[in-house]
Amino acid sequence: MNDQVLHIIGAAVGEGASDGGCKWGAAALKDHGMARALAATGRTVTWGDTISAQPMLATSRLHAIEVFSDHLSVAVQQVLRHGQQPLVVGGDHSCAVGTWSAVADHVRPQGALGLIWIDAHLDAHTPDTSDTQAPHGMPLAALLGHGAPGMTGLFGWSGKLRPEHVALIGARSYEPAEQALLARLGVRVMYMPEVLERGFAACFAEAQAIAQSGTAGWGISLDLDGLDPRDAPGTGTPVEQGIRLADALAVLAGCQQQAGFVAMELTEYNPLRDFGGRTAQAATDLVCAVLAPERATMELAA
């Protein structure tokens, strides 16, 4: 059984999106009992401080996310330095900048970070290409070294992710500029038609091979809108015909035991759209599947 402490960090940020409801996602999932459910799998779990965006102190929405990203990255860095495993719960997907900048900086002495990004969107805009200027559409580009300096340059260096170590699964809503950037960089993107044709299991196996190959550690950034809204309607920007929850649960179970697994992030839960708590339960089930120790994973699979 994994005895590493699992430390949950709430990311109270909705300023990166047009609909700010995701700002309350972490608090709602805490109330829903996510920590208790994770503890029931056999993990030692702590829910630490919640990092909140402070838009009133910022000169713009982008500036608010830059400041927030810096604060979140420091919090994640501290968790890693204490030998604990971080689970960041958001919050709109702009929180990925802080999360994975810290993880990349932590593993940097040993090598590169690999990342599997499950999402209905590409999140690869920059301020120069985004019509909406919504920062939650920019985090992957920023982590790859493209975008506003306050998002790309945390910890004093840029390019937290190398394109060859990143894989996206489930994209089905995006703009040409994002697609062009990722194609130019050579990032592997498995758009939803390919996922439907090959199956999520085969796509995730390929993504895992990409994230693990030649890296010092890897993680999962899971945007709940990557799921089909029939299973998870309570997201910031739901998009039809996504990954089914049952497939995700079956495939993601046991990631905790895979070599080099470092951290997980769950984003874009919007409790204001989650009538009946169905999406909160889906989110809780997903993190339990990914992060459960070996014994609990075997019981879930039985």
From TrEMBL:
Pfam families: Arginase
EC number: 3.5.3.1
Cofactor(s) recorded in Swiss-Prot or TrEMBL: Mn(2+)
Signal sequence range: none
Keyword tags: Arginine metabolism, Hydrolase, Manganese, Metal-binding
Chemical reaction(s) catalysed: L-arginine + H2O = urea + L-ornithine
Involved pathway(s): Nitrogen metabolism; urea cycle; L-ornithine and urea from L-arginine: step 1/1
Domain of life: Bacteria
Membership in a protein family: Belongs to the arginase family.
Name listed for the protein in its UniProt record: Arginase
Native organism: Rhodoferax mekongensis
